[in-house]
Write a sequence for this structure.
């Protein structure tokens, strides 16, 4: 028979799953019914788990608006203060980012990571940006206005500090303007040699596991392979190493990216350690139904 103290210890260890932090996607908000329901379902999988849903604004509608409008760098700083103030998270947590919430959580890891993230799971995130702005529902006016504004001047300084999607828009046909004007994606991807930050790479490589989920039928994120750190290239005769996918778009896969080869952000280190997990989820953008439970079981709690 095991001594009582050991039994108690064992039950304590089992009874306290690692806390979990969620960051919702564009058009959603921390207090939306869908997010609350997701948190409840996670609690069914991991009894007693503490779940925190990140918000920029506590009010549901204002929080939804902050997904479209705002300065992403400032939002991430605010989130770092929010997370640091939650006592249940002080020993670290797992994190799940939905869509743009995924690259925002990655930015948190690279820049702050205090308290530290153990496993980071991103669903359909735009790690290498987007080369087209997501389309909107027919009656989603907030989305439509933001989309029109982005399309009319994505690299203007106003767009780059006020329109969220503009801050991860990366047009392969116009990289010079992107490098010159973007202060979010260029930063977290350490793309600008002069300002490359080694702390980002050290923090990112300190993750236990990085789980990258791609939606196989994703028509919202262009290119969808951005979820796997791939980017689109303009097809020309430059002799770039390209992998042309069935839908005729040319993609630079993760392991051929200079970011990876020269390991600007610690991604190669993670991958060579075997700690980058590539997951295909069969569906359109954010159709997490068939996929989430197994991932939450394996990589959270
Ligand atoms: C690099 O990033 C860390 C963490 O965000 C920050 O404290 C530091 O000031 C940055 N270094 C430079 C040179 O910008």
């Amino acid at each position: 028979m095991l001594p009582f103290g050991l039994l108690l210890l064992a039950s304590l260890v089992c009874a306290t799953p690692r806390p979990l932090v969620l960051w919702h996607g564009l058009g959603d908000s921390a207090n939306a019914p869908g997010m609350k329901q997701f948190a409840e379902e996670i609690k069914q999988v991991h009894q007693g788990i503490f779940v925190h849903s990140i918000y920029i604004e506590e009010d549901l509608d204002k929080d939804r608006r902050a997904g479209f409008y705002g300065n992403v760098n400032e939002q991430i700083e605010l989130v770092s203060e929010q997370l640091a103030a939650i006592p249940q998270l002080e020993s670290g947590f797992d994190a799940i980012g939905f869509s743009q919430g995924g690259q925002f959580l990655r930015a948190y890891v690279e820049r702050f990571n205090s308290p530290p993230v153990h496993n980071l799971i991103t669903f359909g995130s735009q790690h290498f940006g987007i080369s087209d702005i997501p389309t909107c529902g027919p009656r989603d006016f907030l989305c439509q206005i933001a989309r029109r504004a982005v399309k009319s001047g994505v690299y203007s300084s106003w767009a780059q500090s006020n329109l969220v999607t503009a801050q991860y828009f990366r047009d392969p046909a116009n990289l010079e303007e992107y490098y010159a004007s973007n202060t979010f994606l260029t930063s977290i991807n350490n793309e600008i040699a002069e300002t490359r930050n080694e702390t980002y790479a050290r923090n990112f490589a300190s993750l236990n596991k990085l789980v990258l989920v791609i939606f196989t039928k994703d028509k919202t994120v262009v290119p969808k392979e951005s979820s796997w750190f791939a980017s689109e290239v303009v097809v020309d005769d430059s002799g770039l190493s390209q992998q042309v996918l069935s839908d005729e778009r040319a993609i630079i896969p993760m392991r051929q990216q200079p970011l990876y080869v020269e390991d600007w952000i610690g991604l190669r280190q993670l991958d060579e350690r075997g700690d980058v997990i590539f997951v295909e989820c069969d569906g359109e953008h954010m159709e997490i139904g068939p996929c989430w439970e197994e991932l939450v079981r394996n990589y959270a709690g």
User: Anything to note?
Assistant: Residues 111, 197, 199 surround 2-acetamido-2-deoxy-beta-D-glucopyranose (CB under 6 Å).
